[in-house]
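2024-03-11 09:14:02 INFO worker-7 job=invfold-0412 stage=load source=structure_tokens
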């Protein structure tokens, strides 16, 4: 055990998770690579949990941060902030929500917490619909709507949560159905649920479930849900903390795969927009955003430094068509991983979109989740020079692959080769 690891254990909570038997200290990064304290280089396929979205040490972002820090670091939302207004204008336009208002926070957790506050105040209901296998953050309200027991440490809650079918396509009671029948069954379940309860405030859903193992429903499910929600006057909150900014390749936002009946009423974002800086936020229709009848501010949300980073990062992402790169390189990577998975008895499914890919591992010849194998592959990939993540619902048995969106074809091929070796080593 390293001295830093011992010091960490002495001052940190027992529940603060670390990857690897011998935890890694990352000292610096460049592009799609990071280095540890021993000077070893790794290809990074997890990006600090999908947060280093563009590249490590991206010159445009580091320059913007440095220049802004040299002028002023902090002021709070009590004062006008040009960078915050400019970024809000761009996010409002990109969101697709009409007459949109934007509120910046410091994290996805805080963004979802704010969305729940808005929805419950607007609808005067403390009841929330959430998806099974979901994750929305670590605040008291966010864990109370998280449909994943491994990440929800308490049954106490300020909200009453009802869980809906549909977030996981290949498991559960409707897995055997075709896509159209799957959607119809989930809609019927939602209709039935609403017939047995008082009117909720909103449905919150990740278009692709992140911590849940990059699971998703067929395209159009949330559009079909939207028809039901509209009939009951319920709001739709799209949690885009992991799916936003073009990561899925096909769409800029995850909700657009379900956009037949229009955009969500509330959209939350975080992670990648800051490329490592602490940015989160909420976009909502003006009538929803303005429904609060008390004053509020954010001390650190929308800070001059993080807004400068967000503006520089968003500009780079759009100017270099990183959504297109995620579609092209991600498509190639998924093909390679599916070919590798077909040769492994441990791989149940390779799924995902763009550069958001999950590999679900099972006990050979069964559908039983295999968290032991996931941990072993994580370790073996590190030994091979590749960093990946893991997740999953009932058991942590899904490898999570989400590289920076500037990933090259050569790096995708290199990462796939390392993963193939890692999977073979535990088969």
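2024-03-11 09:14:09 INFO worker-7 stage=emit residues=427
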């Amino acid at each position: 055990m390293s001295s830093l690891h011992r010091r960490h254990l002495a001052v940190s909570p027992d529940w603060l998770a670390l990857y690897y038997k011998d935890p890694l200290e990352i000292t610096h990064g460049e592009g799609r690579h990071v280095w540890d304290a021993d000077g070893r280089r790794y290809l990074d396929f997890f990006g600090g949990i999908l947060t280093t979205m563009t590249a490590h040490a991206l010159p445009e972002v580091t320059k913007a941060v440095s220049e802004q820090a040299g002028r002023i670091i902090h002021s709070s939302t009590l004062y006008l902030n040009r960078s915050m207004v400019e970024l809000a204008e761009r996010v409002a336009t990109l969101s697709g929500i009409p007459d949109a208002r934007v509120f910046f926070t410091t994290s996805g957790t805080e963004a979802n917490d704010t969305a729940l506050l808005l929805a419950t105040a607007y609808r005067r209901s403390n009841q929330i619909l959430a998806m099974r296998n979901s994750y929305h953050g670590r605040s008291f309200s966010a864990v109370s709507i998280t449909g994943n027991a491994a990440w929800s440490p308490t049954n106490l809650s300020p909200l009453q949560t009802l869980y809906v079918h549909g977030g996981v396509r290949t498991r559960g009671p409707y897995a055997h159905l075709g896509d159209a029948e799957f959607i119809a069954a989930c809609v019927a379940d939602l209709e039935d649920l609403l017939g047995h309860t008082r009117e909720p405030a909103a449905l919150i859903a990740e278009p692709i479930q992140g911590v849940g193992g990059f699971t998703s429903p067929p395209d159009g499910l949330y559009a079909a849900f939207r028809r039901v929600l509209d009939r009951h006057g319920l709001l739709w909150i799209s949690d885009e903390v992991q799916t936003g900014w073009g990561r899925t390749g096909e769409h800029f936002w995850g909700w657009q795969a379900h956009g037949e009946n229009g955009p969500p009423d509330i959209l939350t974002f975080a992670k990648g927009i800051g490329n490592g800086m602490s940015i989160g936020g909420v976009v909502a229709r003006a009538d929803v955003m303005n429904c609060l009848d008390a004053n509020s501010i954010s001390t650190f949300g929308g800070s001059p430094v993080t807004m400068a980073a967000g503006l520089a990062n968003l500009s780079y992402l759009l100017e270099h068509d990183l959504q297109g790169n995620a579609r092209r390189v991600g498509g190639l990577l998924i093909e390679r991983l599916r070919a590798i998975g077909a040769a492994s008895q441990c791989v149940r499914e390779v799924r995902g979109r763009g550069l958001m890919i999950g590999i679900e591992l099972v006990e050979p010849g069964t559908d039983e989740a295999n968290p032991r194998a996931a941990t072993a592959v994580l370790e073996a990939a590190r030994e091979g020079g590749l960093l990946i993540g893991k997740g999953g619902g009932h058991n942590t048995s899904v490898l999570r692959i989400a590289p920076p969106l500037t990933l090259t074809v050569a790096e995708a091929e290199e990462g796939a080769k390392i993963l193939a070796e890692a999977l073979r080593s535990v088969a």
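2024-03-11 09:14:09 INFO worker-7 stage=report msg="The longest helix spans residues 322-342."
2024-03-11 09:14:10 INFO worker-7 job finished
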